[in-house]
Structure formats: structure tokens, C-alpha cells
């Protein structure tokens, strides 16, 4: 009886991926304890926060920019913010903090991403209209001119891939590659755990808030949770930005596709 109970316990642990989560939190604990170099000063932290606020500010002005004919201004501002993110990373030499096999880094990023998606899945099961909130705007943008069925398929596919790639690259550079990495290296907060908590929560809140105008308040709250998952995965994998961008790209492709098909 005890052996059978042990087998059931093992099956349940495997089904719930307990071992994978234990691996993730072990890696996260090691990453939090790891020394982050180089350190940055308060001016750099304030600058990084100011740059990370730009997507939120331009999203709040989105209705004004559309009425004024500056529809491309939000994308331009986000692109400029991402360029500043690249400059901050280059100026301070941000990069992978710990050495680990690529396969392990991908696995850790995947688990962090999965953790961030748990609240999103729960919310969307009960409120599926959140993803459909901007369906009309996306559909109009994706099929602005083509008329034939083939043209529409090509236009929609190209739209989804380009928007997803742009959003993944720029947002990860701003919110994880610049903001999280900067705050994690600021010795103004002495405790490593508290410093990482501030980095994760602030980056996730700004990430979610930047999507209010595009997706609505409810979806922005969901994206805040997903932003926490992205940030945790980024920290656990030793700050490997390329892997985080890839997972963000996959997420955006799936979410925009669902929004168009909902």
C-alpha cells in the first residue's frame, strides 16, 4: 500500500512539474545571492526609470496622437526608448552574470514564463473578452488594403510577426534588459533580495501600465503578472536577454492571433 502511495505521489509530482519548479527556484535563489557587477549610481537608476516611463506616457497620449495624425509616434517613442536601453547596457557592460548551458537557460526562462502565465490563464478563462477588446483595431490594421483571401492571410501573418518581433525586442530591452539589470546593480538598496523584488515589481508594473491604451485596464493587469514571470525568468537564466526576447515574441504571436480570432 505504501509503495502504491509512493508511486501516486511520484506521478503527481511529475504531472505538476515539481522537480522543474524546484530547479527554477534553486537557480533563482543562486541568482539573487550572486554578486552583480558593475554597480551603478542613483543617476543611472533614475535615468533608466525615466526611459521605462516613456511607453506609458506615450500610451496615455495615444488618442491625442491619433487625432493629430501622428499615429506612428508611439512606435517611434518606444523605439527611441529601446535605443536608450541599448546604450545603457553598452555603457555599463550589462550581460550574462553566470555561466550555464544554453539548454538550462532556456528551461529556466520557460519556467519563469509559465509562472507568469498562470494568473493570465485563470483570468482569461473567466474573462475571455479581455483579449478580444482590441480585436477590431487589430483586424483593421492587419487588413487595411488587401482584398483577396490570400492577400488577407499574408497581411495578417506579416502583421502578427512584425508587431510581435518589434514589441518583444523593444519591450525586453526597456523593461528587463535595461530596467531590471540597472536596479539589480544599484547598491543604494543593500539587501539583494529586496533589490531584486523592487526590480521585478517595478518593471512588471510599468510593463503592464504601458499596455493600458492598447489592451485595456483588465488585460494590462494580466500583463503585469506576465511581466513578473518574464523578469523572474530573466533573473534565473543569468540575464540572458536574447532568450527572454524569444519567449516574449512567441507569447505575442499567440496572444495577438487569439485576439484576432476571438
How much helix is in the residues?
Answer: over 70%
Structure classification: mainly alpha
Measured by DSSP, the beta-strand proportion falls in under 5%
- Provide the gyration radius in Å: 20 Å
Contiguous runs where pLDDT drops below 50 for at least 5 residues: none
What gap, in angstroms, lies between the N and C termini?
48 Å
The largest β sheet comes out as: none
The total of beta strands comes to 0
Order of helices and strands: HHHHHHHHHHHHH
* Shape descriptor: globular
Average pLDDT taken over every residue:
85
Give me the number of helical elements.
13
Describe the protein:
- The protein has about 260 residues and is an all-alpha fold.
- Helices cover about 80% and strands about 0% of the residues.
- It is built from 13 helices and no strands.
- It has helices at about 1-15, 20-35, 40-60, 60-65, 75-90, 100-125, 130, 135-140, 150-185, 190-210, 210-215, 215-235, 240-260.
- α3 runs antiparallel to α5 (about 75-90) and α9 runs antiparallel to α13.
- The longest helix is centred in the middle third of the chain and has 36 residues, at about 150-185.
- The radius of gyration is 20 Å and the shape is globular.
- The mean pLDDT is about 85.
List the helices and strands and how they pair.
Blueprint: H1 2-15, H2 18-33, H3 42-60, H4 62-67, H5 73-92, H6 102-126, H7 129-132, H8 135-142, H9 149-184, H10 192-209, H11 212-215, H12 217-236, H13 241-261
Helix pairs in contact: 2-12, 3-5, 3-9, 3-10, 5-9, 6-12, 8-13, 9-10, 9-13, 10-12
